[in-house]
Amino acid sequence: MIALSRWKVILVVLAVIFGVLFSLPNALPQKVVDALPGFMPKNRLNLGLDLQGGSYLMLEVDTAALRVERLTNLIEDVRTTLRDEKIVFSDLGQANGEVTVRITDPAQLNTAQNILRTRVGSDLPGAPGGRDLAVRTDNGVIRIAFAEEAVNAEAAKAVEQSMEIIRRRIDELGTREPSISRQGVNRIVVQAPGESDPERLKAIIGQTAKLSFQMVDESVTLQEAAAGRIPPGSELLPSEDGYSTMLLVKKRALVTGEMLTDAQQSFEQQTGAPVVSFRFNGQGARRFADATSQNVGKRFAIILDGKVISAPNINEPITGGSGQISGSFTPESANDLAVLLRAGALPAPLNVEEQRTVGAELGADAIKSGQISAYIAFGSVLIFMLLAYGLLFGGISIIALVVNGFLLVAAMSMTQATLTLPGIAGLILTLAVAVDANVLIYERMRDEVRAGRSPVSAADAGFSRAIVTVFDANITHLGAAMIMFSLGAGPVKGFAWTLAIGVITSVFSAVLVTQVLLGIWFRVARPKSLPIA
Amino acid sequence: MSKFWPLIKLLPVKTNFRFVKYSPIIGGISALACAASLFFTIWPATPPCGGLNCGVDFRGGTVLELSTVDGRPADLGKIRQALAGQGVGDIQVQAFGKASDVLVRFEVKDAAHATRAVDGVKAELVKALGPLNFKKTEVVGPKVSGELFRNGVLALLLGIGMMMTYIWFRFGLTFGIGAASALVHDVLLTFGLFAFTQMEFTLTAVASILTIIGYSVNDTVVILDRIRENLRKYKKMPLGDVIDLSINETLSRTAITGVTGIMALTGLAVFGGDALLGFSISMIFGIVVGTYSSFYIAAPVLLMLGVKRGEEDEVRPAAAGAAQRP
Known about the structure:
The complex is a heterodimer. Chain A is of the alpha+beta class.
């Protein structure tokens, strides 16, 4: 008797129930799905961006820029520390990723080294007693470099922070269900489905939004500065304040964007121009109050990402802890800036390395053509199998194919694997592969009958022999899918995942479902011969 | 009706094609085809893609798929003009589908700001042509395209290596070499197809080649499996005859699976739209060459190398070649 063990029947029945139950939400309207009781599965197929439209952005955290910036800050730290300790130095600068400084008086060399070792830099997290800086001396020159662990930890932290900030910014925009994930060491992938404007998304995500308030240096004129006579501790920055194209500012920041607690777009009362009003936290308010009371009559610059956006005069001390930024804003750009300021600055610049945007209309077309080709593929396989193997055996393989279809959709919905356009191709290919297992089994049965076996023993032998081949043949397929999944990007991953699930469900349904159905037929009809022989 | 149906009864139950007999000639032709494919894939040896028509995935650059909002025909000349002043190079503007649809491809010279440049180009196009619907935008930076290329090549090599190892493990070294030869043949010819037709070579193309590898091995395994079984069954039969017998025995399966696969993919090729056309065509091609290579590459390689048959003497290639059917 063809093996019709109880556990096989139970397994098939369970699989069919699972398949129908979990693929059901795809067939029902959203309202009905929402109204289903809590124990019912509600996940639909997770359509990829190429099918539902949307944007894919791959960003790389510019860790090299981060390193440069850290070095620049370190130089300023060294300068102030040595000055405070009245140590005379020269040639402060950076070379080969190190900060170098020459201590003029050899007697002060040791003191300077000790002070720099303890006062500059900070403890290494996770390494008791370890410092994030390596300080060494050769020939009267102190060289300070960041420890490798510190650099790596910094980069990792920067990526984490960037993800968090991107998430906050996108949430503020109200984009529907964005997905933000990390890829590799320093890459972030942002996927935003639907009709979101990719350019605005990119602008919002890509801007560093580093805000600082720095004093304008008026000790030399702009012409002198442009000619290269820049006082130490100051820098020449491009300006968009509407009065000059460059502005000389002190490098030391009075207050930075981290000290903001809130930022909102509003309108200036007198002129009605769009502005961004903000509020400092306690520390920021204190520092801003101190700075403005010491510098009444002078100008300070509001700097965003290395550009001066406005440089107002300090008419009186600003002690209230709040203020506003005016510049050449439109209401929308002022709002975007407020969003950026609220979400915080990115720790390092982000570069867009890859962008793929698909309009919703194109996605709908893709779904439609995918559906049509899936129906055609199924239809032609159905007709061909019926023609080739007759109503009974052909029919059984078609039922197995339908079960396979349900299982595949159910597994894809349950795992929330992304279905992409190539994924649909994988699905269609699975139809063909699934039939192959049936064909192998049937052909084997024919061979066995021809070799003179009875129908029952031919069916049994057909199964047990063909299954080995089926497994061998499908494991190779699975292997190909695994390689694609681990090395492929975006759409290929979706294809590989669909193919892998499809291989597994098709082996299950072609082998087990067919076996159970044939077993039932044998039990009921007690055939004297096989209709395919 | 029932006399002709099921179809399977119409087909000859037993076929006796002499596949092995012609394998030296056909194998030679295949080797030539492989060499030609390899040549045209690499020639002209310009990095990164040589003779292949690489898409932005591997070459880097930008593709815009756009259409006019009100369906009026798009002026390709105006688009070219608008692009000319934008500091982008290697501009291709082509109509596709309806008269209102245009495909624009270009490379941004300053690769570091590729995506920013794209925004400028879009604005410029809208200025020149009025409102446009940007259906699809793809920008791939040089770093990413290089990685995609490397990963694609790596995936193909790994795929072939893994399949070969698996068959070696399951069937022994000779069968492994046979299957691997068939695989390399299929992959080379598919590359040849892409080079020859100048179909765009993208990530999906790599996926199709990997799938062809899977299918081809699948097909080869079925035949090798039968060869191994028949070697045990007919201990005295010359190897060439065993191979012929095995291919003939599995022929109806090969035909049915091949036909269903091709039918399913034809639907995809016709109705799957532009995005899947290359994929479906290369898959159909792959099924054909994958089937062919199981007969004419994998099996004859066994014949050349000779197979150890259990406690039996090794069948020498010379002995196998000289053997005639009874």
